[in-house]
Structures are given as C-alpha cells and as structure tokens.
Amino acid sequence: MTSQLPVDATTDDPDVLAAYRTDRAAFCPSGTPRALVRARSLDDVVETLRWANENNVPVVPQGARTGLSGGANALDGCVLLNVEKLDQILEIDVEEQIAVVQPGVINGTLAAAVAEKGLYYPPDPGSKDISSIGGNVATNAGGMCCLKYGVTGDFVRALQVVLADGRVMRTGRRTAKGVAGYDLTRLFVGSEGTLGVVTEVTVALRSAAARPLAAVAFFDTMSDACRAVADHLGAGFRPAALELMDAATIEAVGRMRDLGFPPGVGAVLIAQSDAGTRAPEELAAFEGSARRCSATEVIVSDDPAEADLLMQGRRLVGLALEQYPASLVDDICVPRRNLAVLVDGIERIAEEHGVTIATCGHAGDGNMHPAVLFDLAQADAAQRAFDEIMRLGLKLGGTITGEHGVGFLKRAWLARELDETALWSHHQIKQALDPRGILNPGRVINSTATGRGENDQRSF
Amino acid sequence: MTSQLPVDATTDDPDVLAAYRTDRAAFCPSGTPRALVRARSLDDVVETLRWANENNVPVVPQGARTGLSGGANALDGCVLLNVEKLDQILEIDVEEQIAVVQPGVINGTLAAAVAEKGLYYPPDPGSKDISSIGGNVATNAGGMCCLKYGVTGDFVRALQVVLADGRVMRTGRRTAKGVAGYDLTRLFVGSEGTLGVVTEVTVALRSAAARPLAAVAFFDTMSDACRAVADHLGAGFRPAALELMDAATIEAVGRMRDLGFPPGVGAVLIAQSDAGTRAPEELAAFEGSARRCSATEVIVSDDPAEADLLMQGRRLVGLALEQYPASLVDDICVPRRNLAVLVDGIERIAEEHGVTIATCGHAGDGNMHPAVLFDLAQADAAQRAFDEIMRLGLKLGGTITGEHGVGFLKRAWLARELDETALWSHHQIKQALDPRGILNPGRVINSTATGRGENDQRSF
Hints:
2 copies of one chain form a homodimer. Chain A is α+β, with helices and mostly antiparallel strands. The first copy, chain A, has 15 helices and 18 strands. Among the domains of chain A are: 89-207, 2-Layer Sandwich (Uridine Diphospho-n-acetylenolpyruvylglucosamine Reductase, domain 3), CATH 3.30.465; 213-318, Alpha-Beta Plaits (2-Layer Sandwich); 324-395, Alpha-Beta Plaits (2-Layer Sandwich). Chains A and B meet through strand 9, helix 6, strand 11, helix 14 and helix 15 of A and strand 9, helix 6, strand 11, helix 14 and helix 15 of B.
C-alpha cells in the first residue's frame, strides 16, 4: 500500500509507526497509521500531500510530538507527515531582527542561536527544550514570557505553507508592518495542522533583554497569592514572568529537586524582571504587593543565576507530574480578576471528585494548568474533574485553552466556547482550504470529511 | 426601491447619498448608491445585511470614511451601511485593562477616555482625531507608535461581527490568551469590510506610559537620516516613535505652522521616548546616532509640551498636503535596511515623471508615505509615479501597503505582491464566508460575484 506514496522518506515499519503514533496528551485515542513520511525537503511535503489528496487519505502533520491535546496522534489509515528533520535555521538577520527557520527547529535551539547574536526570541513554552517552532506555530504556543512579550503568533511575520492539495503558498512578509490582503499568517497560526502544513517560518526577534532578576513570595493560601497578582498588575507593572504554583505542585517538584522553599507553603509566586536598571524597582514593588497580600516570606534576589534556578524549578513541573500514575493537564485562561475564584473552584472540584489537582500556571495572564492526578481506577472521576474545570473556566468568562490547543482532547468543548455562527465559519474555512478534508481530520473541529477510523470515544 | 429595505435608519435622499459616496482616497471611482443606512443598532446592521443578501444587493460598510484606499466608496446600486452612529464606549475595565466599544467610536475619543482612567490605547493612526475604531480594525491601522507597541490588530481581543447573511458571531475572547479554534479575530481585522461588518470591538489596553519626551535631528539628506535610523535601532533601542520627513514635507507643513526648523533642511527625524526615567538616556543615544550620521543639528527636549508640538507638526502632514491641487499618497513598507535605497528611488521616480513627491513616514518600521503632488494635467504621470513606487517597494522586499489597506486603489497590485495560491486562498475564504459576494465586492480582491456597476478604470 505504501509503495503508492511517491516519497522516498517513507516507512511502513510497524515498530517505527508505533513509536510515532502519539503526542504527549494523556488518554487521547490514536489509530494505526499506514505510513510515516519523515520529510527532508519541501518536495517531500508537497508530494505527500498531493498523493494523499488525490487518494483521499488522511494526513496527520507532526513535529516534535510534544503537544498536549492529541492533535498529532495517528488516525487509522493515515499518513503521519513528520517535519522534525526539516530543522535548519535558514537565516538570522541581525539588522532586521528576524529569523527564517524550518518547522523542525527546536524552540530553545532558535532562542540560543539568536542570543549569540545579541537578539531575543521571546516565546518560551514550558516545553521549549523539546518542542519545535512548527508545533509552536500550529498551537500558537504561549509560555512564561507572554505577559510582557506576547505569544508565538505575535512573533510570526511570514509562513511558507503547503496546502492540502500540495500547492505551496507564502503568507505575510518580512517587513515590520503590512496589510496587503487577509491575515493568512494568523489564520494558519493555531490551526493545528488542519489547514496546511507549515514548512518555513519567519519570526520577529527583539534586542536581547537584560538577564532577568527574580523574586519569590510564599503564601499560606492560593487566594492570597492571587490577590498579590492583582495588586501588582493593578499598579501598572508588567513583569517578564509571574508564575504561580500551589502546594501540590511545589510538593511534586520538591521530590525531584530541593528548591529550598520553607515547609508548609500553600502557594508560591515567582516574579521575574528583565528591565535592567529598573528591575530592582519592579521587584521591590512586587515584594510590596506580596506583603500587602499576607505573604509569609518574600525573597528578592539580585543574582540572575538564582533567577534561573527558580525558573528551572517552575519548568520542572511537567516532568514532576509524570511521577504520578496518570494525569490530565488542563489549560484554561480566565479574566485575571477571576483567578482567585477559579483557584477556589478547582479546589472544590478536586474534593468533589476525590482526585488530586496540582495547579500552576501563568498567573499574570490568568492562564492556569490544573493537572488532575489520579490512579487509573479513578479515570472516570478524573475525566469529570477535567471537564468540570473547563466548564468553570467558561463560566468565569474564560477559554478552554490558553495555549495548548484543542486537538482531539477538547474538540467537544470548542462547541461550548464558540457560538453557532463562529463554528459554522470554522467549517466553511476548513472546507474552503481543504475541500477533501484530508488534513488532520477530526481535530479542532469535527470535520465532515474523511476522518474515518477515528475512535471518537475517549479510551482510558 | 429603498422601501424594500426594512430598516428605519434608511435614506435615499440624493444629496445625502452624494455626501456619503466617498472616503478620502484620491481618484478612486465611486458609484451611485441606492440607499444609505445609518445604523443605530445591531439590528439595523443585521436587517440590512439579511435583506441585501436575500436580494443580491452589494453592501459597502462605512465608518468615518477617512480611509485612503477607496474601500468605503459607493458602488452603483449598493447600500451604504454606515456605522458611525454606533459610537458608544460600552465598557472600560480598568482591572483587566480592556475596553469594549462600538465601531463608530473615534480613535482619539477612546484614547482620551481610557487615559482618564490611567490607561493607554496605543494605536494612533495619523487620522486618530477623525478615524473610528471600526475603520481602524477594518484596515488594521498603524500609526506613530507601532515601532514600540504594534498595530491595531495587536490590540484587538474580540469582535462582534455580522456576516453577509445577517448572522451575528463573536470571535476571540476577553482573556489575555486563548487558542480555542481558528483566529477569526485576526482574519476579520484588516479584511476591509469584505468578510463581515464589525459591530463591537474588545481592545486590550496598557498602563499609561510616561508623557513622551522628544528629540529632533536635522540632516542635509534623507540618506543621512536613514542611516541614523539604522544606527539607532541597530543599537537595540525601540523608541515610542521615529518619524521621518523630507524637505518637501517640511516645506508643506511649514506653510501651515512655523515649526522653527532651520532653513534649508533636507530631512528631519523625530524620536520620541515614553520610557520615563530612561527617556533622557534613550534620547541621548538617538542624538549620538544622529551626529554619527552627519546630523547638522540635534535638539533634545526635556519638556513634554515641546514633544507634543513636534508630533503635532508631524501630524499636520495630511492636512498640509491638501494645499496641493491633487495628491496620491502611497504607503509602502520595506525592510529597514532598504529605507535609504527606497528614499533614493523615490527621488529618482519623481524626477523621471516630472512630479513632486513629498515623503514622510514611520521610519522605524520602514513604512513610508510618499505623496505624489501634482496638477490635474499631470495625472497620468502621477499615476505612473505612484505605481512605480509600489513596484520599487516590492522589489526591495516590501509590501504595497503598510497600514492604509488595499481597498480599490491597490487591488490590481495585490496580485503582484501575493503568489497565486495565496490569492486563491483569499478567494476561497471570501466565497466561504460571503457566498453571494455582497460585501464590498471588488475591494481588496476582485471578487467574482455581484460587484456589478463598478467602474474598474481609474477615473481622474
């Protein structure tokens, strides 16, 4: 069957296929692919899509497969079109402050390469050391720095995209501004491989910021920490990061590394400032906010190395939660004033469903990642808790996903967030650009086309 | 005929219709509308579109009609759907730093209203005192502040949109982040009334910045000024504005107001800093750059009132050019390193075509507004010069429009900037969301649908 696919970089070795069947989303179904194409050129992508479109074969685009929503999981009979080997940084233009990269470049690799030239690529998802720019673009990934700098989409100037039928298109431009035509770039950013396959990304860069300093504040309750967030931001500050962790998260991370936090802490808030000479002033203001909101202790560091260590602790959360038998990581984002209500509600949901929920997240943006931790015997309760968190997020005026994407995991919920006409628009756009519905069918929206063989039931 | 339109706020008074036939673009054809609806409610918009869609009548959405590309000009037999009376600021949420406004709110009115609450709405097109938020959204308007803060689209969180068939849709969200579904908000931003009519806009705000200080540098040549731009930005600075004016522009403005500039100046560069305590440092660095690039004089002011006056001078350019019998204002944006080449090329184009071109613009973004100034007898030469500037912009890796939009004026040029597949995508999206092609047909893209009666020839 595979021999039909006119692309050299194709394999149908069952062991290899098995290894590429899933991303990092827990409990999302994955089907049995017919083939894997590890594209090594634009032509490989073009030929794969052209063939698949002609033959009505579903294609699942993949990058580093670090996604958390099942958007890169295999569908029965699909071609997995993996672009991780398209991993060249094609250009870093210091004067224009842009870089042109292939989709398989790892986020952290790009960030390091531009840093060597005195530049800064701000988007820094928690997965930055393992996730690729293509995937960051596909999900419009966020990170710690969004509060001050914005999300991935804010740094994408132009794309090269291969459409479902294999035609190649350029969107956007290299210039700082430009309004010629519809903003196709932003339409493709966050479209999770359902509208086209991104084969080249032009990103905007900034001048290197000062090495960040950090402060850490400890609280008895999450509620106090949330008040401190509101107090600090309400005073007009825009720190480079403002990260919140609850007791369960601190405990999980603490098992991997001694963070030197005092015992019995209910919540910790980490603020980072890269404002250079003004950083001490910003962090002093943060300390004031924290103390006004009943912080039990605040430590302001004047050593960038300490700030690194603190943020490394925060970045360990994902790994730390893997110690648990099973977890479902949520990603709601609410208006900041509702952060405390959200956090209270999450604690109530945990109690009601008899599961542990470890909550951390980008407090400055109102974007929280409550992780439902459970034994497999609790799977149904865990799923209900996971859903309940999204329901609460929507009720508080928020969204079901701040930065992880819809993928398979949350597509039933998309219809609760969007109104009927917005959903109709999604279907119309999908149909317009991928008339045969071969591109990642059934992800983000329930496409009416080929998504055959997909198990719509959640399979624990 | 109009009696069919089931909306009270309708007129077919020929004098009124005549007054609403055009925006501020020079030399764009405008047809004879059948009716004008001055919508006073969402229902007026819904009913107008529903009726027009059922009856296959073209609809031209209008706001303050300050656009510069003919996108709001009447088409023969169209309904002009004007939303300038939908002019309420519905909400300013200080804690969340967002505002919800109707499309007819004037940009400057919103900026002033949020400033009273200690907040800042950065997008500041040159037209800010007369242009409305709806139009700013429709064109993704820029301004002076884009270099530091971004364009209109960067501040739009959510929209209420009425689709061609009268259905109402919400896009986006109030939260700082969110990736649930396609980015319909950004698709509608900059779509110039061809995909839907925006009836509500939720914008992000920022904490008030410090009152800006400014410096002004004088040069013998535009080329020196361009080098100073590169020097200053290359050092990692990101001023709140970096505006360039050539001798012809200075002369035109000087006839309206004495700017106190030395005589015989070839180019002036104005830098603005709102960095508060760091503003003097930024402006001193700007002075250094200017002097390294042969500035004949540099004045650094420590008085915000003087900065205001300088920027007011810059903002007078539009009015100043109206002194000339006729003008065609271009809007190319090029990679910054090509700014000097662009400026040289524009001077050459002026000579070759025997017209005057006054050039000013947002030098920090590479976004220039060369205005071809001419007597009506020179109309053909002026048009050729205008086109030649766009050709040069594209050749230098730029775009035909940085912030004014395509409208009617530049739609033939869109096909030169975009590749065939990108153009196809535009048509597919247009067809998907407006199947009968009633919304602003023939603007941005040559729609295949109802654009009947439009004169495709430029009419001088």
